[in-house]
Structures are given as C-alpha cells and as structure tokens.
Amino acid sequence: MLRISRVLCVLAMIVAMASTAMAQTPAPAAPAAAAPYVPEIVDKPAIKLLDQEGPGKLFQVEKQLLCVMEGTPAEMGFQHGRLLAKQAEHIIKQGYMLKALWSRGYTREYVMAQSARMEKHFPPEYIEEMKGIVKGLEAAGIKDIAYEDVRLGITQAEILHFEPDAAPQCSNFACWGKWTPDGRLLHGRNLDWNVKGDAQDDAVTLVWRPKGGSPFMMVGWAGGIGSVSGMNARGITIGEMTLPSPNATFDGLPLFLTMRRVLEKSSTLEEAVDIIQKGPRTSGWNFLLGDGKAPDGRALEVDAKRCEVYKPNDPKESQETLHWAMEDCVRRTNHPVGKDGLLDLAMAFGSEYNIKVENWEQLKLILPLLTQQNSYQRYEWLGKQIQEHPKGIDIRESLELLANGPVFGDATLHSWVFDPKNNLAYVSIAGNNPPVTATRCPYVKLDLNEWFH
Predict the structure, then answer these.
(1) Which CATH class is domain 171-199+234-447?
(2) Based on CB atoms within 10 Å of each CB, which residue in 53, 81, 270, 404 is the most buried?
C-alpha cells in the first residue's frame, strides 16, 4: 500500500492533543532570521571531452558528466552503454540499485514482476534503446548486465513509491512575466530523495538528439533512458514531486518514461498536458510544466485515476483549500491543492488515524491543520518569497529560493534552475564521501545551445 501522507498522521496527533496543547505555555519568540545562503555558481565551467562513440560524446563539465547521444534509438542506446559503461555498471551492481533495493529486502522476483507489468506500456523504441545500452555495455567489456537490469532503472521510482519507503519531499516553481527582470520563464526544482544511497556517484546530464526528432535533455543517471527533470529544445521544462494518493498501480507507463515522453514529443504546454492526461499513469505525482516560448506554466496533480490541471491564477487553487494561486507563476510541493485530492486522502486513510471524513464539509473542519505540515510550508514560502521580489527573480534569486527556508533540505539529490529561452541549465549534484546536499554544492552552468540546434 502507498505510504500514507504525513498530513493525516499529524492531523490525528494534533486532534488528539488539542486540549493539552491549549494549556501549554506559549513558545518564546523565534530568533532573528539568519542571512540567506547564497549558492555558488560556476558561470564559466571547464569542459573536457572524455570519450566518443560515433556521434555520441561524453564530456566532463567541471565535476559533472554530460553525455550526448545522436541517431536512432538503438544507436543512442549503444552510445550510452559504451560511453557510460563504468557508471552504469556501478549504479546497477555496486551503487544505488544495490542499496535501494537488494540491501533492503526487496526480492528480485517481486521487483522484476512489477517492472514487467510496466513494460507492457513501453513504446517499442524505448525497448530498442535499452537493448542498445546492453550492447554498448558488452562492447565495453561488461557482460553481466541484462536488459531486465536496465529496465529496472526506469521502473524503480514506482517500486520505491510503495512501502516500506517514505515518499521523497520535492519542490518546484516556475515564474515569468511580472516576477522576472525581462519576463522570461525560469523553472527551479529540488529533488529531495536520498543522498546516502550513492545515486549521485553516477549522475549524468543526458542529451538526446534523436534522428528525425527534436533534441532534449534530462538530469539523470547512467543506464537510465528517462529521469525526473528535463528540458527540450522547444522550450518545454518539466519537474515532478511525489504526491500521496490511494489511486496507484503498476499497470501504467512509469514516471521516468512519462516525463521523457513529454520532452521528446511536446512543443507546447497543451501537447505536454495531453501526453500526461492520456497516460496510462501509475502512482501519485505532482508535475510542474513550463514553456519558455509563451511564457507560461501548468501544475498537474495526477494519479492512476485523476489528472487535475492548474493554470496560473486558477480558481481551483483557492482559499477554500487554504491555498492561493498567483499570476505569472505556478508552484507545487508534495500534497494535493485541489478538493478532490485532499478528500481522496482523507476518505481513504483517515480511519486508520481516527479521523472520520465522509465529505468536504467534515474535512474543512480540520483542514487548517494542513498549514503545519512541511509540504504546505514550502508551498507557502515559495509564493511569499516570489511576491517579495517583483521583477527581481533572476538566476541567483531562483537558486536562493531552492537553498533557503523550508524549501532547503539536507537530502537534495539534485537541484537546478532552467532558463529555456536561452537553452541554459544551472545544475547542482549532491556530493558524496561524506554526503552533501545538492544546494550546498556548486551550480554548474550548462550551455545547451550547441546540441539544441
């Protein structure tokens, strides 16, 4: 069963202890706020070509890896496998996959069965690309990684979305128009996952140049043909956040491939939204979409059954649910904003925490307790900070939003700000040995113009 939202847990505790809490001595005044942390930006990174396979190239950009693939799905997969063989072998055999799955009691039989259920929805060209990765690994001398191992890399997000894992906490915002100096769209995102699982050791920015298609990039990991963060050459950006939901299944297109599909096939927000709406979808996710051409953005709350789309200033994002929409901005964290999503959670799981909710009027009585949750506080803080900087949210200010306040987390695996109008990405990857959260590591400016044209 999907891990229950912490919102309901804390609601139950607060309701149970309400009378006691009222009698307690008021808390002392909060200390003065510290000066905001200012992230380091590497504006002119050193770039080195490490290896080449046909038109495919592997670069080192400061301390980060960037792999460019070009051609048919099979050709791009082969380039990926051959150029990133060392990193792919590590993440599958010694690194993240070992720690996240096999060292924590997941059985290969269970994991592969769920992965196979999702594979039924894979477009055939993605299967070709993954088989190409296996051939590339073999060309690099790695013979013990099978297609099923590569497939697991793009289905593990759904598997780890369920017990015994806790849902990650992530934040996204996109702003433009009145909030940025020149009106262009900027999209920022923290992936708060797990910096102790070694995934950062094999992080790589992947750039695809598909034959007959349009280029796109994703901040991801070796061996994976999709990820949870990306931008395409047509100005579309996408980030995601885990959304607790009772409506979840393994019988759908996995998150990593859904997001890749959006970048690969979309040139407008409407096209991007349509891909997600058509599904088939798996678990609960919040998506944030940006379009640097318009500029404009959308927030989506989705699960296996629902797909709610929110525009800027959307009346559905209202005080009725203790939320507030903004002009020229969309933002999301890890909870539902809409009535349907909140009511779904309360009705499905409330009884397990001694909360009986059968309709919206009952939920409204305890809804104010939502404001005490970290997810709501991040949502609220992002909106207020943006409002305090009219025409002042540029790259540095965007990075500061990700690195401060309740949005800051000590387990941020990667963090970025995308500037799709200029084909620029400012990307930070968590450190390791010892683990260091991404927002305390340098943001490297990646100029994608060479590969996006």
Answers:
(1) alpha beta
(2) 81
Domain range 46-159, CATH class: mainly alpha
212 with 76: CB under 8 angstroms? no
Tell me the C-alpha distance between 37 and 69, whole Å: 36
Would you tell me how many other CB atoms lie within 10 Å of the CB of residue 11?
25
pTM for the model stands at: 0.93
| CB proximity list for 137: less than 8 A, separation 6 or greater | 81, 82, 85, 88, 89, 143, 145
Are the C-beta atoms of 386 and 412 separated by less than 8 Å? no
Domain with CATH 3.60.60.10 in the chain: 171-199+234-447
How high is the pLDDT of residue 343?
Answer: 92
Check: CB of residue 115 under 8 Å from CB of residue 150.
Answer: no
Tokens describing residue 366: 């305890």
Q: Give CA–CA dist 153/225, Å, rounded.
A: 8
H or E element: which one contains 349?
helix 339-349
- Position 274 scores a pLDDT of 98
Residue holding tokens 């900027």? 186
CATH 1.10.439 location in the chain: 46-159
Residue 144 tokens, joined: 């013990």
